[in-house]
From TrEMBL:
<dbReference type="InterPro" id="IPR036921">
    <property type="entry name" value="PurM-like_N_sf"/>
</dbReference>
<dbReference type="GO" id="GO:0004641">
    <property type="term" value="F:phosphoribosylformylglycinamidine cyclo-ligase activity"/>
</dbReference>
<dbReference type="InterPro" id="IPR004733">
    <property type="entry name" value="PurM_cligase"/>
</dbReference>
<dbReference type="Pfam" id="PF00586">
    <property type="entry name" value="AIRS"/>
</dbReference>
<dbReference type="GO" id="GO:0006189">
    <property type="term" value="P:'de novo' IMP biosynthetic process"/>
</dbReference>
<protein>
    <recommendedName>
        <fullName>PurM-like N-terminal domain-containing protein</fullName>
    </recommendedName>
</protein>
<dbReference type="InterPro" id="IPR016188">
    <property type="entry name" value="PurM-like_N"/>
</dbReference>
<feature type="domain" description="PurM-like N-terminal">
    <location>
        <begin position="14"/>
        <end position="90"/>
    </location>
</feature>
């Protein structure tokens, strides 16, 4: 269920309360980060975008799910992005 048109998350009834879920991306900032070689902060930004969407609905973030898609795996890059996600969750 959506709270309203344009809401930033989905609401799921849970007893007398709701769980809020959201997914987001960092948009063109991802391309800029990779072109500049600053890869270790993009994960932090990704977490921040998702958390912002959840807190606008008055919810407290409980967990974070990630999805990393690429046509060519660069292990060093993945490690930097995942480290940023971990840092963002702390």
């Amino acid at each position: 269920m959506a709270p309203r048109i344009g809401g930033f998350g989905g609401l799921f009834p849970n007893n007398d309360d709701y769980l809020v879920a959201s997914t987001d991306g960092v948009g063109t900032k991802l391309k800029l980060a990779f072109e500049s070689g600053i890869d270790d902060t993009i994960g932090i930004d990704l977490v921040a975008m998702s958390v912002n969407d959840i807190v606008t609905l008055g919810a407290k973030p409980l967990f974070f799910l990630d999805y990393y898609a690429t046509s060519k795996l660069d292990v060093d890059l993945v490690e930097k992005v995942i480290k940023g996600i971990r840092d963002g969750c702390e």
